[in-house]
Protein backbone atom coordinates (compact mmCIF):
# COMPACT_ATOMS: atom_id res chain seq x y z
CA UNK A 1 0.00 0.00 0.00
CA UNK A 2 1.58 3.29 -1.06
CA UNK A 3 1.83 5.80 1.81
CA UNK A 4 -0.81 8.50 1.52
CA UNK A 5 0.59 11.97 1.58
CA UNK A 6 -0.10 14.19 4.60
CA UNK A 7 -0.20 17.95 4.82
CA UNK A 8 3.33 18.03 6.28
CA UNK A 9 4.62 16.34 3.15
CA UNK A 10 2.72 18.77 0.95
CA UNK A 11 4.00 21.77 2.90
CA UNK A 12 7.56 20.62 2.32
CA UNK A 13 7.01 19.90 -1.39
CA UNK A 14 4.95 23.01 -2.17
CA UNK A 15 8.01 25.23 -1.81
CA UNK A 16 9.18 23.95 -5.19
CA UNK A 17 6.07 25.04 -7.08
CA UNK A 18 4.20 28.24 -7.96
CA UNK A 19 0.98 26.93 -6.46
CA UNK A 20 -0.74 23.97 -4.84
CA UNK A 21 -3.88 22.81 -6.67
CA UNK A 22 -6.20 20.43 -4.86
CA UNK A 23 -8.82 18.42 -6.74
CA UNK A 24 -11.69 17.32 -4.53
CA UNK A 25 -13.08 13.99 -5.83
CA UNK A 26 -11.12 11.64 -8.08
CA UNK A 27 -13.72 10.06 -10.38
CA UNK A 28 -13.93 10.11 -14.19
CA UNK A 29 -13.68 13.91 -14.08
CA UNK A 30 -11.58 14.72 -11.01
CA UNK A 31 -8.83 12.18 -11.68
CA UNK A 32 -8.44 13.34 -15.28
CA UNK A 33 -8.60 17.01 -14.29
CA UNK A 34 -5.91 16.50 -11.63
CA UNK A 35 -3.68 14.86 -14.24
CA UNK A 36 -4.36 17.68 -16.72
CA UNK A 37 -3.34 20.30 -14.11
CA UNK A 38 -0.21 18.33 -13.18
CA UNK A 39 0.73 18.29 -16.87
CA UNK A 40 0.49 22.10 -17.16
CA UNK A 41 3.81 23.46 -18.38
CA UNK A 42 5.22 27.00 -18.36
CA UNK A 43 7.10 28.46 -21.32
CA UNK A 44 10.38 27.61 -19.58
CA UNK A 45 9.31 23.94 -19.48
CA UNK A 46 8.73 23.86 -15.73
CA UNK A 47 5.58 22.56 -14.09
CA UNK A 48 4.00 25.28 -11.95
CA UNK A 49 1.58 23.16 -9.93
CA UNK A 50 1.87 20.65 -7.15
CA UNK A 51 -1.41 18.77 -7.61
CA UNK A 52 -3.03 17.02 -4.69
CA UNK A 53 -5.90 14.71 -5.50
CA UNK A 54 -8.12 14.47 -2.43
CA UNK A 55 -10.61 11.69 -1.85
CA UNK A 56 -13.05 11.03 0.97
CA UNK A 57 -11.50 9.07 3.86
CA UNK A 58 -13.62 5.98 3.12
CA UNK A 59 -12.57 2.51 1.92
CA UNK A 60 -13.48 3.36 -1.68
CA UNK A 61 -11.88 6.80 -1.40
CA UNK A 62 -8.65 5.36 -0.01
CA UNK A 63 -8.67 2.69 -2.73
CA UNK A 64 -9.00 5.38 -5.41
CA UNK A 65 -6.27 7.55 -3.88
CA UNK A 66 -3.93 4.57 -3.58
CA UNK A 67 -4.69 3.38 -7.08
CA UNK A 68 -3.85 6.73 -8.64
CA UNK A 69 -0.72 7.12 -6.54
CA UNK A 70 0.46 3.76 -7.84
CA UNK A 71 -0.15 4.90 -11.43
CA UNK A 72 -3.48 3.17 -12.08
CA UNK A 73 -6.64 5.06 -12.89
CA UNK A 74 -9.64 3.86 -10.82
CA UNK A 75 -11.64 3.04 -13.97
CA UNK A 76 -10.89 1.32 -17.27
CA UNK A 77 -9.00 3.70 -19.51
CA UNK A 78 -8.82 3.50 -23.29
CA UNK A 79 -6.86 6.76 -23.52
CA UNK A 80 -3.09 6.11 -23.57
CA UNK A 81 -2.46 9.86 -23.38
CA UNK A 82 -4.21 9.96 -19.98
CA UNK A 83 -2.28 6.93 -18.69
CA UNK A 84 1.04 8.37 -19.87
CA UNK A 85 0.27 11.77 -18.35
CA UNK A 86 -0.46 10.13 -14.98
CA UNK A 87 2.80 8.16 -15.03
CA UNK A 88 4.79 11.27 -16.02
CA UNK A 89 3.21 13.30 -13.21
CA UNK A 90 4.06 10.63 -10.63
CA UNK A 91 7.61 10.38 -11.92
CA UNK A 92 7.95 14.19 -11.77
CA UNK A 93 6.58 14.14 -8.25
CA UNK A 94 4.03 16.91 -8.78
CA UNK A 95 0.99 14.66 -8.45
CA UNK A 96 0.09 13.10 -5.16
CA UNK A 97 -3.11 11.91 -3.55
CA UNK A 98 -4.45 11.86 -0.03
CA UNK A 99 -7.57 11.44 2.07
CA UNK A 100 -6.32 14.01 4.58
CA UNK A 101 -8.51 17.16 4.29
CA UNK A 102 -6.00 19.24 6.24
CA UNK A 103 -4.09 19.57 2.94
CA UNK A 104 -6.62 22.21 1.87
CA UNK A 105 -4.82 24.61 4.22
CA UNK A 106 -2.08 24.68 1.56
CA UNK A 107 -4.37 24.96 -1.46
CA UNK A 108 -4.02 28.00 -3.68
CA UNK A 109 -6.75 26.51 -5.89
CA UNK A 110 -9.33 23.83 -5.10
CA UNK A 111 -11.33 22.28 -7.93
CA UNK A 112 -14.60 20.70 -6.80
CA UNK A 113 -15.30 17.44 -8.63
CA UNK A 114 -17.47 15.60 -6.14
CA UNK A 115 -20.66 14.02 -7.44
CA UNK A 116 -24.09 15.56 -6.88
CA UNK A 117 -26.90 13.09 -7.42
CA UNK A 118 -30.52 13.79 -8.28
CA UNK A 119 -33.33 11.60 -6.95
CA UNK A 120 -34.55 10.41 -10.37
CA UNK A 121 -37.75 9.01 -8.89
CA UNK A 122 -38.75 12.00 -6.77
CA UNK A 123 -41.60 14.20 -7.88
CA UNK A 124 -41.00 17.05 -8.03
CA UNK A 125 -37.36 16.58 -8.92
CA UNK A 126 -34.97 17.17 -6.06
CA UNK A 127 -31.29 16.77 -5.29
CA UNK A 128 -29.77 16.03 -1.92
CA UNK A 129 -27.15 18.73 -1.52
CA UNK A 130 -26.03 17.48 1.89
CA UNK A 131 -22.80 15.81 0.78
CA UNK A 132 -22.03 18.62 -1.66
CA UNK A 133 -22.50 21.22 1.08
CA UNK A 134 -20.24 19.19 3.38
CA UNK A 135 -17.56 19.08 0.68
CA UNK A 136 -17.68 22.85 0.29
CA UNK A 137 -17.62 23.29 4.07
CA UNK A 138 -14.43 21.19 4.23
CA UNK A 139 -12.78 23.63 1.84
CA UNK A 140 -14.20 26.79 3.41
CA UNK A 141 -13.00 25.79 6.89
CA UNK A 142 -9.42 25.20 5.78
CA UNK A 143 -8.42 27.08 2.62
CA UNK A 144 -6.12 30.05 3.07
CA UNK A 145 -6.76 33.73 2.40
CA UNK A 146 -6.16 34.53 -1.27
CA UNK A 147 -7.08 31.07 -2.55
CA UNK A 148 -9.75 30.16 -5.12
CA UNK A 149 -12.50 27.56 -5.36
CA UNK A 150 -13.60 26.46 -8.84
CA UNK A 151 -16.82 24.42 -8.91
CA UNK A 152 -16.67 21.87 -11.75
CA UNK A 153 -19.35 19.49 -10.47
CA UNK A 154 -22.60 19.61 -12.44
CA UNK A 155 -24.89 21.50 -10.07
CA UNK A 156 -28.39 23.02 -10.21
CA UNK A 157 -28.10 26.59 -11.55
CA UNK A 158 -27.68 29.02 -8.68
CA UNK A 159 -25.64 26.63 -6.54
CA UNK A 160 -22.33 28.53 -6.81
CA UNK A 161 -23.81 31.86 -5.74
CA UNK A 162 -26.67 30.69 -3.48
CA UNK A 163 -25.04 27.68 -1.79
CA UNK A 164 -21.24 27.70 -2.20
CA UNK A 165 -20.59 31.41 -1.68
CA UNK A 166 -22.67 31.71 1.53
CA UNK A 167 -20.88 28.68 3.01
CA UNK A 168 -17.48 30.19 2.17
CA UNK A 169 -18.37 33.63 3.52
CA UNK A 170 -19.79 32.22 6.78
CA UNK A 171 -16.72 30.06 7.34
CA UNK A 172 -14.38 33.00 6.72
CA UNK A 173 -16.39 35.13 9.14
CA UNK A 174 -16.13 32.38 11.76
CA UNK A 175 -12.38 32.21 11.11
CA UNK A 176 -12.32 36.00 11.61
CA UNK A 177 -11.05 36.54 8.07
CA UNK A 178 -12.18 38.83 5.26
CA UNK A 179 -15.32 37.19 3.87
CA UNK A 180 -14.21 38.04 0.34
CA UNK A 181 -10.76 36.49 0.74
CA UNK A 182 -11.49 33.24 -1.07
CA UNK A 183 -12.43 33.67 -4.74
CA UNK A 184 -15.31 31.51 -6.02
CA UNK A 185 -15.86 30.57 -9.66
CA UNK A 186 -17.68 28.01 -11.76
CA UNK A 187 -16.34 26.23 -14.82
CA UNK A 188 -17.98 23.08 -16.04
CA UNK A 189 -16.20 20.15 -17.62
CA UNK A 190 -17.02 18.49 -20.93
CA UNK A 191 -15.18 15.27 -20.07
CA UNK A 192 -15.92 12.36 -22.37
CA UNK A 193 -14.49 9.10 -21.02
CA UNK A 194 -13.07 6.91 -23.77
CA UNK A 195 -10.15 7.21 -26.19
CA UNK A 196 -9.96 11.03 -25.88
CA UNK A 197 -10.52 11.35 -22.13
CA UNK A 198 -7.64 13.78 -21.44
CA UNK A 199 -8.17 15.59 -24.73
CA UNK A 200 -11.78 16.31 -23.77
CA UNK A 201 -10.33 18.42 -20.96
CA UNK A 202 -7.18 20.00 -22.37
CA UNK A 203 -8.12 20.30 -26.05
CA UNK A 204 -11.70 21.41 -25.66
CA UNK A 205 -13.67 24.59 -25.23
CA UNK A 206 -14.36 25.61 -21.66
CA UNK A 207 -16.97 27.95 -20.13
CA UNK A 208 -16.40 29.78 -16.86
CA UNK A 209 -17.73 32.58 -14.66
CA UNK A 210 -16.72 34.20 -11.36
CA UNK A 211 -18.92 35.42 -8.54
CA UNK A 212 -17.18 38.74 -9.16
CA UNK A 213 -14.71 40.26 -11.63
CA UNK A 214 -11.68 39.33 -9.56
CA UNK A 215 -12.76 35.69 -9.32
CA UNK A 216 -13.47 35.56 -13.05
CA UNK A 217 -10.01 36.97 -13.84
CA UNK A 218 -8.29 34.49 -11.54
CA UNK A 219 -10.28 31.59 -12.96
CA UNK A 220 -9.43 32.61 -16.51
CA UNK A 221 -5.74 32.94 -15.63
CA UNK A 222 -5.73 29.48 -14.06
CA UNK A 223 -7.60 27.80 -16.95
CA UNK A 224 -5.29 29.44 -19.47
CA UNK A 225 -2.30 27.93 -17.66
CA UNK A 226 -3.77 24.41 -17.88
CA UNK A 227 -5.84 24.19 -21.07
CA UNK A 228 -4.96 24.59 -24.73
CA UNK A 229 -6.88 27.87 -24.87
CA UNK A 230 -5.07 29.13 -27.99
CA UNK A 231 -6.78 26.45 -30.08
CA UNK A 232 -9.85 26.15 -27.86
CA UNK A 233 -10.70 29.62 -26.55
CA UNK A 234 -12.35 30.08 -23.18
CA UNK A 235 -15.90 31.45 -23.00
CA UNK A 236 -16.73 33.72 -20.07
CA UNK A 237 -20.32 34.15 -18.97
CA UNK A 238 -21.54 37.04 -16.77
CA UNK A 239 -22.46 34.85 -13.81
CA UNK A 240 -21.92 31.35 -12.39
CA UNK A 241 -25.68 30.78 -12.69
CA UNK A 242 -25.42 31.34 -16.45
CA UNK A 243 -22.41 29.00 -16.62
CA UNK A 244 -24.23 26.33 -14.59
CA UNK A 245 -27.23 26.72 -16.89
CA UNK A 246 -25.06 26.25 -19.98
CA UNK A 247 -23.89 22.90 -18.70
CA UNK A 248 -27.30 21.41 -18.01
CA UNK A 249 -28.83 22.92 -21.14
CA UNK A 250 -26.12 21.26 -23.28
CA UNK A 251 -27.02 17.86 -21.95
CA UNK A 252 -30.76 18.47 -21.85
CA UNK A 253 -30.61 19.48 -25.51
CA UNK A 254 -28.83 16.24 -26.31
CA UNK A 255 -31.25 14.11 -24.27
CA UNK A 256 -34.25 15.76 -25.96
CA UNK A 257 -32.84 15.35 -29.48
CA UNK A 258 -32.16 11.68 -28.80
CA UNK A 259 -35.68 11.18 -27.46
CA UNK A 260 -37.09 12.76 -30.62
CA UNK A 261 -35.44 10.05 -32.71
CA UNK A 262 -37.22 7.26 -30.85
CA UNK A 263 -40.56 7.93 -32.58
CA UNK A 264 -38.87 8.38 -35.96
CA UNK A 265 -37.07 5.09 -35.47
CA UNK A 266 -40.40 3.31 -34.99
CA UNK A 267 -41.83 5.18 -38.02
CA UNK A 268 -38.91 3.95 -40.18
CA UNK A 269 -39.29 0.37 -38.95
CA UNK A 270 -42.96 0.29 -39.90
CA UNK A 271 -42.36 1.77 -43.33
CA UNK A 272 -39.26 -0.36 -43.94
CA UNK A 273 -36.93 2.58 -44.54
CA UNK A 274 -33.40 2.92 -43.21
CA UNK A 275 -33.55 5.93 -40.90
CA UNK A 276 -29.76 5.99 -40.60
CA UNK A 277 -29.50 6.62 -44.33
CA UNK A 278 -32.06 9.39 -43.92
CA UNK A 279 -30.05 10.88 -41.04
CA UNK A 280 -26.86 10.75 -43.10
CA UNK A 281 -28.36 12.91 -45.84
CA UNK A 282 -29.82 15.35 -43.30
CA UNK A 283 -26.39 15.65 -41.69
CA UNK A 284 -25.07 16.97 -45.00
CA UNK A 285 -26.56 20.28 -43.94
CA UNK A 286 -24.08 22.02 -41.61
CA UNK A 287 -27.02 23.30 -39.60
CA UNK A 288 -28.23 19.73 -39.00
CA UNK A 289 -24.96 17.88 -38.49
CA UNK A 290 -25.83 17.07 -34.88
CA UNK A 291 -29.11 15.24 -35.49
CA UNK A 292 -29.11 12.20 -33.25
CA UNK A 293 -29.96 8.52 -33.75
CA UNK A 294 -32.54 6.11 -32.28
CA UNK A 295 -31.12 3.34 -30.12
CA UNK A 296 -31.56 1.19 -27.05
CA UNK A 297 -31.96 4.15 -24.70
CA UNK A 298 -30.01 6.85 -22.93
CA UNK A 299 -27.67 5.84 -20.14
CA UNK A 300 -24.79 7.45 -18.34
CA UNK A 301 -24.48 9.78 -15.38
CA UNK A 302 -25.10 12.97 -17.34
CA UNK A 303 -28.06 12.81 -19.70
CA UNK A 304 -30.18 10.87 -17.25
CA UNK A 305 -30.07 13.58 -14.56
CA UNK A 306 -29.02 16.90 -16.10
CA UNK A 307 -32.44 17.53 -17.71
CA UNK A 308 -33.87 17.59 -14.17
CA UNK A 309 -31.51 20.21 -12.80
CA UNK A 310 -33.47 23.26 -13.94
CA UNK A 311 -36.51 22.05 -11.99
CA UNK A 312 -34.26 21.16 -9.06
CA UNK A 313 -32.83 24.68 -9.16
CA UNK A 314 -36.30 26.21 -8.96
CA UNK A 315 -37.42 23.78 -6.25
CA UNK A 316 -34.32 23.54 -4.06
CA UNK A 317 -32.25 26.68 -4.69
CA UNK A 318 -34.64 29.48 -5.66
CA UNK A 319 -37.95 28.21 -4.22
CA UNK A 320 -39.79 29.31 -7.36
CA UNK A 321 -43.03 27.49 -8.20
CA UNK A 322 -45.19 27.36 -11.29
CA UNK A 323 -42.54 26.79 -13.96
CA UNK A 324 -42.45 23.32 -15.51
CA UNK A 325 -40.27 21.58 -18.09
CA UNK A 326 -42.60 19.34 -20.11
CA UNK A 327 -40.17 18.77 -23.00
CA UNK A 328 -37.23 17.89 -20.72
CA UNK A 329 -39.26 15.56 -18.53
CA UNK A 330 -40.97 13.93 -21.53
CA UNK A 331 -37.53 13.28 -23.05
CA UNK A 332 -36.44 11.49 -19.87
CA UNK A 333 -39.62 9.40 -19.95
CA UNK A 334 -39.16 8.47 -23.61
CA UNK A 335 -35.46 7.70 -23.19
CA UNK A 336 -36.19 5.60 -20.12
CA UNK A 337 -38.77 3.55 -22.02
CA UNK A 338 -36.49 2.66 -24.93
CA UNK A 339 -35.05 -0.56 -23.43
CA UNK A 340 -38.56 -1.88 -22.85
CA UNK A 341 -39.48 -1.00 -26.44
CA UNK A 342 -36.58 -3.15 -27.62
CA UNK A 343 -37.77 -5.99 -25.40
CA UNK A 344 -41.15 -5.67 -27.13
CA UNK A 345 -39.44 -5.78 -30.56
CA UNK A 346 -37.65 -8.95 -29.50
CA UNK A 347 -40.87 -10.53 -28.24
CA UNK A 348 -42.49 -9.86 -31.62
CA UNK A 349 -39.61 -11.66 -33.35
CA UNK A 350 -40.08 -14.66 -31.02
CA UNK A 351 -43.80 -15.23 -31.67
CA UNK A 352 -44.73 -12.99 -28.74
CA UNK A 353 -43.04 -15.21 -26.15
CA UNK A 354 -39.89 -14.31 -24.21
CA UNK A 355 -40.51 -16.84 -21.46
CA UNK A 356 -37.75 -19.49 -21.33
CA UNK A 357 -36.13 -18.06 -24.41
CA UNK A 358 -32.31 -17.98 -24.34
CA UNK A 359 -31.15 -14.48 -25.16
CA UNK A 360 -27.58 -13.25 -25.61
CA UNK A 361 -27.19 -9.51 -24.92
CA UNK A 362 -24.02 -8.09 -26.45
CA UNK A 363 -22.80 -5.01 -24.60
CA UNK A 364 -23.25 -3.92 -20.99
CA UNK A 365 -21.81 -0.38 -20.79
CA UNK A 366 -23.94 2.71 -21.36
CA UNK A 367 -21.95 3.80 -24.40
CA UNK A 368 -19.31 2.28 -26.66
CA UNK A 369 -15.72 1.56 -25.60
CA UNK A 370 -16.11 2.43 -21.90
CA UNK A 371 -16.65 0.18 -18.87
CA UNK A 372 -19.13 2.58 -17.26
CA UNK A 373 -22.49 0.88 -16.70
CA UNK A 374 -24.20 3.71 -14.83
CA UNK A 375 -27.87 3.77 -15.89
CA UNK A 376 -26.95 1.42 -18.72
CA UNK A 377 -29.90 0.84 -21.09
CA UNK A 378 -28.46 -2.62 -21.59
CA UNK A 379 -28.92 -3.34 -17.89
CA UNK A 380 -32.51 -2.06 -18.07
CA UNK A 381 -33.10 -4.39 -21.02
CA UNK A 382 -31.62 -7.38 -19.17
CA UNK A 383 -33.84 -6.71 -16.16
CA UNK A 384 -36.89 -6.49 -18.43
CA UNK A 385 -36.04 -9.72 -20.24
CA UNK A 386 -35.50 -11.56 -16.94
CA UNK A 387 -38.76 -10.17 -15.60
CA UNK A 388 -40.49 -11.57 -18.67
CA UNK A 389 -39.08 -15.02 -18.05
CA UNK A 390 -36.17 -15.11 -20.49
CA UNK A 391 -32.80 -16.71 -19.72
CA UNK A 392 -30.22 -13.99 -20.36
CA UNK A 393 -26.49 -14.19 -21.00
CA UNK A 394 -24.54 -10.93 -21.18
CA UNK A 395 -21.27 -10.35 -23.01
CA UNK A 396 -19.09 -7.27 -22.99
CA UNK A 397 -15.48 -6.95 -24.17
CA UNK A 398 -14.60 -4.27 -21.59
CA UNK A 399 -17.03 -4.33 -18.64
CA UNK A 400 -15.86 -6.71 -15.94
CA UNK A 401 -18.04 -9.35 -14.36
CA UNK A 402 -20.11 -8.21 -11.38
CA UNK A 403 -21.20 -4.88 -12.87
CA UNK A 404 -24.74 -6.16 -13.53
CA UNK A 405 -26.64 -7.08 -10.35
CA UNK A 406 -26.63 -10.89 -10.24
CA UNK A 407 -26.24 -11.45 -13.99
CA UNK A 408 -22.70 -12.57 -14.92
CA UNK A 409 -20.94 -10.70 -17.72
CA UNK A 410 -18.78 -12.82 -20.01
CA UNK A 411 -15.74 -11.21 -21.61
CA UNK A 412 -15.12 -14.21 -23.87
CA UNK A 413 -17.45 -14.41 -26.87
CA UNK A 414 -19.97 -17.22 -26.29
CA UNK A 415 -20.98 -19.78 -28.92
CA UNK A 416 -24.19 -18.27 -30.38
CA UNK A 417 -25.83 -21.55 -31.42
CA UNK A 418 -27.43 -22.14 -28.01
CA UNK A 419 -29.42 -18.88 -28.14
CA UNK A 420 -32.83 -18.14 -29.59
CA UNK A 421 -31.86 -14.53 -30.19
CA UNK A 422 -28.90 -12.18 -29.97
CA UNK A 423 -29.43 -8.53 -29.00
CA UNK A 424 -26.67 -6.18 -30.13
CA UNK A 425 -26.89 -3.52 -27.42
CA UNK A 426 -23.68 -1.43 -27.48
CA UNK A 427 -21.64 -0.42 -30.54
CA UNK A 428 -18.26 -1.36 -29.05
CA UNK A 429 -15.44 -1.11 -31.59
CA UNK A 430 -14.66 -4.76 -30.83
CA UNK A 431 -18.05 -5.75 -32.29
CA UNK A 432 -17.44 -3.84 -35.51
CA UNK A 433 -14.30 -5.99 -35.96
CA UNK A 434 -16.23 -9.23 -35.39
CA UNK A 435 -16.23 -11.73 -38.27
CA UNK A 436 -19.98 -12.36 -38.04
CA UNK A 437 -19.94 -14.72 -41.03
CA UNK A 438 -17.68 -17.06 -39.07
CA UNK A 439 -19.09 -16.49 -35.57
CA UNK A 440 -22.71 -16.91 -36.65
CA UNK A 441 -22.03 -19.76 -39.11
CA UNK A 442 -24.28 -22.23 -37.26
CA UNK A 443 -26.62 -19.71 -35.65
CA UNK A 444 -30.24 -19.89 -36.85
CA UNK A 445 -31.94 -17.59 -34.35
CA UNK A 446 -32.95 -13.91 -34.53
CA UNK A 447 -30.71 -10.88 -34.35
CA UNK A 448 -31.97 -7.59 -32.91
CA UNK A 449 -29.59 -4.71 -33.60
CA UNK A 450 -30.94 -2.33 -30.95
CA UNK A 451 -28.23 0.34 -31.15
CA UNK A 452 -26.84 0.66 -34.68
CA UNK A 453 -24.11 -1.82 -33.80
CA UNK A 454 -23.62 -3.82 -37.01
CA UNK A 455 -21.70 -2.33 -39.89
CA UNK A 456 -23.26 -2.39 -43.37
CA UNK A 457 -20.83 -5.17 -44.33
CA UNK A 458 -21.75 -7.25 -41.29
CA UNK A 459 -25.45 -6.86 -42.07
CA UNK A 460 -24.78 -7.92 -45.63
CA UNK A 461 -22.83 -11.01 -44.50
CA UNK A 462 -25.63 -12.06 -42.15
CA UNK A 463 -28.35 -11.40 -44.73
CA UNK A 464 -26.49 -13.64 -47.21
CA UNK A 465 -26.80 -16.62 -44.87
CA UNK A 466 -30.01 -15.89 -43.02
CA UNK A 467 -32.11 -13.43 -45.01
CA UNK A 468 -34.74 -11.61 -42.96
CA UNK A 469 -33.33 -12.73 -39.61
CA UNK A 470 -32.11 -9.29 -38.55
CA UNK A 471 -34.37 -6.59 -37.13
CA UNK A 472 -32.74 -3.21 -36.48
CA UNK A 473 -33.99 -0.27 -34.46
CA UNK A 474 -34.54 2.52 -36.96
CA UNK A 475 -34.39 0.12 -39.93
CA UNK A 476 -36.73 -2.79 -39.40
CA UNK A 477 -35.97 -5.88 -41.49
CA UNK A 478 -33.17 -4.40 -43.56
N1 LIG B 1 -27.34 7.84 -27.51
C1 LIG B 1 -28.35 7.52 -28.41
N2 LIG B 1 -28.38 8.16 -29.62
C2 LIG B 1 -27.45 9.10 -29.95
C3 LIG B 1 -26.43 9.41 -29.02
C4 LIG B 1 -26.39 8.77 -27.81
O1 LIG B 1 -29.20 6.67 -28.13
O2 LIG B 1 -27.51 9.62 -31.07
C5 LIG B 1 -27.31 7.17 -26.21
C6 LIG B 1 -26.02 6.42 -25.95
O3 LIG B 1 -26.14 5.06 -26.35
C7 LIG B 1 -25.86 6.52 -24.43
C8 LIG B 1 -26.54 7.83 -24.11
O4 LIG B 1 -27.37 8.17 -25.22
O5 LIG B 1 -26.53 5.48 -23.76
C9 LIG B 1 -25.59 8.96 -23.82
O6 LIG B 1 -24.67 8.98 -24.88
P1 LIG B 1 -23.80 10.32 -25.16
O7 LIG B 1 -23.12 10.10 -26.49
O8 LIG B 1 -24.61 11.53 -25.00
O9 LIG B 1 -22.66 10.22 -24.06
P2 LIG B 1 -22.65 10.81 -22.59
O10 LIG B 1 -23.88 10.52 -21.83
O11 LIG B 1 -21.35 10.40 -22.02
O12 LIG B 1 -22.68 12.39 -22.86
C10 LIG B 1 -21.49 13.08 -22.77
C11 LIG B 1 -21.87 14.51 -22.53
N3 LIG B 1 -20.65 15.17 -22.18
C12 LIG B 1 -20.59 15.78 -20.99
O13 LIG B 1 -21.52 15.83 -20.22
C13 LIG B 1 -19.28 16.38 -20.66
C14 LIG B 1 -22.52 15.13 -23.76
O14 LIG B 1 -22.62 16.54 -23.56
C15 LIG B 1 -21.70 14.87 -24.99
O15 LIG B 1 -22.41 15.36 -26.13
C16 LIG B 1 -21.48 13.37 -25.16
O16 LIG B 1 -20.75 12.91 -23.98
C17 LIG B 1 -20.65 13.09 -26.39
O17 LIG B 1 -20.88 13.78 -27.40
O18 LIG B 1 -19.83 12.16 -26.31
Short description:
This protein is of the alpha/beta class and 478 residues long. The protein has 16 helices and 16 strands.
Describe this structure as you would to a colleague.
It contains 16 helices and 16 strands. The chain is α/β, with parallel strands linked by helices and 478 residues long. The site of ligand SAJ has 19 residues, from helix 9.
What is the secondary structure topology, with strand pairs?
Blueprint: H1 7-14, E1 19-24, H2 30-39, E2 49-54, H3 59-69, H4 80-92, E3 95-98, E4 109-112, E5 118-119, E6 126-127, H5 130-140, E7 148-151, H6 159-174, E8 183-186, H7 199-202, E9 206-210, H8 213-226, E10 234-236, H9 240-271, H10 275-282, H11 309-317, H12 326-349, E11 358-362, H13 377-387, E12 391-395, E13 409-410, E14 421-424, H14 429-432, H15 436-439, E15 446-449, H16 456-465, E16 470-472
Parallel strand pairs: 1-2, 1-4, 2-3, 4-7, 7-8, 9-10, 11-12, 11-14, 12-13, 14-15, 15-16
Antiparallel strand pairs: 5-6, 8-9
Helix pairs in contact: 2-4, 5-6, 9-12, 12-13
This protein binds ligand SAJ.
Ligand SAJ binds near residues 250, 298, 299 and 302.
